[in-house]
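Incident log, support desk, overnight shift.

02:14 A customer reports that sequence design results differ from what the structure should imply. Their input is reproduced verbatim below. On-call engineer (initials T.W.) acknowledged and began investigating.
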């Protein structure tokens, strides 16, 4: 079912990127109590919604005994095609997501989400093979 609809949408947009099913993580209050949080957000970009996650942890200690006071990362999942249309066997909400493959769009979205210096970005993008 998805393949037919995806092919129609791709033909309309002139793209060849296939959408994938994304399982939204269930919030874990135990992890959040331990100074870790994972948030999902939506960014409006060129008339489309972009799903991204922001993970943050504080007071990290490594096995070497060293540590850092803060650590953060951002992961862009892609353009939302269909938002939370069902659930899987684990109770996680499912969305249909299209990966962002255009390098110029990736750079622009990176700058919007987490401005940095030059092309060095702290934002990673979901790749689907």
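02:41 Re-run completed on a clean worker. Output:
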């Amino acid at each position: 079912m998805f393949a037919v609809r995806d092919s129609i949408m791709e033909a309309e947009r002139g793209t060849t990127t296939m959408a994938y099913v994304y399982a939204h993580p269930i919030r874990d209050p135990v992890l959040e109590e331990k100074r870790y949080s994972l948030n999902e957000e939506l960014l409006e970009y060129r008339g489309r919604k972009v799903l991204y996650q922001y993970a943050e942890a504080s007071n990290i200690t490594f096995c070497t005994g060293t540590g850092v006071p803060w650590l953060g990362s951002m992961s862009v999942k892609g353009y939302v095609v269909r938002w939370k249309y069902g659930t899987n066997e684990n109770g996680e909400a499912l969305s249909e997501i299209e990966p962002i493959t255009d390098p110029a769009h990736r750079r622009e979205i990176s700058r919007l989400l987490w401005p940095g210096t030059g092309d060095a970005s702290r934002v990673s993008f979901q790749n689907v093979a």
